């Protein structure tokens, strides 16, 4: 069965250009010309990937991305203006997987579609995966759920992939370049700032104190690692944060 791609742009000639090139590569193509139509088609047809313009009537592309990401982990490629750096950053923050700047090469766009779909299929992997747990933090690769001390944590697709990789290899240090290539793909044209930004957002969601992280820690001059948690030491750590020493806790 052919994979379905939803192409969303308010300019019909761009939709037709992208549609033609995707059809030539054997994809099924759905189209939408505004944000409302895009959400309706995404919910009805459940495409394998969405190509989404930012400047759309009724509901803009960033809000469409937000709403899709609340409901699905489908890969999203944003189409942005040449000078739309802010929109690209926001798009990545809210869960877009990649972006392509207008004007773009249709062949490059198709190559990125294929790369993301290959990576998505690889990440899905054969068979079930066991939940990953450390210090009250649990990640379930099958249900795509994360919990911290029994409380559900909402992560974007990229935040989830980052945490899964780091938590799955505790105490191993990953460079920013490795994370960029592994999570975003070798053909991604972003910078390592993208990694830093997503790590920062991830810390805000899983750390007691994002400014002094205990799960995802920085290895200066190298990159990031997930620090193995020793559950029995965490209460004394929190006590110390509140201004009390362990000696005071023990009444000494």
Radius of gyration: 21 Å
Order of helices and strands: EHEHEHEHEHEEEEHEHHEEHH
Individual helix count = 10
CATH class of the largest domain, named Alpha Beta
The number of domains: 2
Mean pLDDT across residues = 82
Write out the CATH superfamily name of the largest domain: Response regulator
Task: Briefly note the structural class of the backbone.
Answer: alpha/beta
If strands are numbered along the chain, what order do they take across the biggest sheet? 2-1-3-4-5
Distance between the termini: 70 Å
CATH architecture type of the largest domain: 3-Layer(aba) Sandwich
Main sheet attributes: strand count, strand direction, barrel closure? 5 strands, parallel
Shape verdict: elongated
Low-confidence stretches: 231-252
Looking at the structure, the CATH topology of the largest domain is Rossmann fold
How much helix is in the residues? 40-55%
Find the count of extended strands (DSSP E, 2+ residues): 12
Fraction of residues in β-strands: 15-25%
List descriptors.
Arc Repressor Mutant, subunit A; 44% helix; alpha/beta; 2 domains; Rossmann fold; 12 strands; elongated; disordered C terminus; four-stranded antiparallel β-sheet; 252 residues
Tell me what you see in this structure.
This protein is α/β, with parallel strands linked by helices. It has two domains: 4-124, Response regulator (Rossmann fold), CATH 3.40.50.2300; 132-240, Orthogonal Bundle (Arc Repressor Mutant, subunit A), CATH 1.10.10.10. Helix content is 44%, strand content 19%. The protein contains ten helices and twelve strands. The chain has helices at residues 12-24, 35-45, 61-71, 85-93, 106-124, 157-168, 176-184, 193-206, 234-241, 246-249, and strands at residues 4-8, 28-32, 49-53, 76-80, 98-101, 132-134, 137-140, 145-148, 151-153, 174-175, 216-219, 223-226. It has a five-stranded parallel beta sheet, sandwiched between helices. A four-stranded antiparallel beta sheet has the order 6-7-8-9, covered by helices on one side. Strands 10-12-11 form a three-stranded antiparallel beta sheet. It is elongated, with a radius of gyration of 21 Å.
